[in-house]
Amino acid sequence: xxxxxxxxxxxxxxxxxxxxxxxxxxxxxxxxxxxxxxxxxxxxxxxxxxxxxxxxxxxxxxxxxxxxxxxxxxxxxxxxxxxxxxxxxxxxxxxxxxxxxxxxxxxxxxxxxxxxxxxxxxxxxxxxxxxxxxxxxxxxxxxxxxxxxxxxxxxxxxxxxxxxxxxxxxxxxxxxxxxxxxx
Length: 183
Fold this sequence. Notes:
The protein is an alpha+beta fold. The protein has helices at residues 4-21, 67-76, 86-108; strands at 29-34, 44-51, 55-63, 116-117, 121-124, 138-146, 151-160. Strands 1, 2, 3, 4, 5, 6 and 7 form a 7-stranded antiparallel β-sheet that branches. Strand 2 and strand 3 form a beta hairpin. Residues 176-180 have low confidence and may be disordered.
């Protein structure tokens, strides 16, 4: 069972990771909670999983494969939009999701041992209609509004395999993406 503090902690750590991975360094963003998944208009999503022995969470990054989205990810990667072909565009979206979940994975490591992360998968957003079948204890949808860009949407689901209670404080929130860890 997830405590309310744990649900808030997962939400806080994800929103911090979103700010560090989806927002260009010269822009600001506002992350807000959406009450209804029906408010998410995008057609595709990148799905990643972060798991431990105690929980499994999934993060879904919604997007439309259009010019505005391509321009955002080109800007994020300091490229010209014209330099991105379809494959490099999809790679940039998947890598942004990977970076976000890597930050989330690192931050959750302060609370939980033995955490692993999946590789990104791109699927149709119609699959999101089946989130309830995962028997998640926590489902949250976010809108990410970025200056000089478009609105993006992200969903978080958390399934718990044990009682989970932790609290995130301001001191535990990192301000950088950290160093590359070699094994």
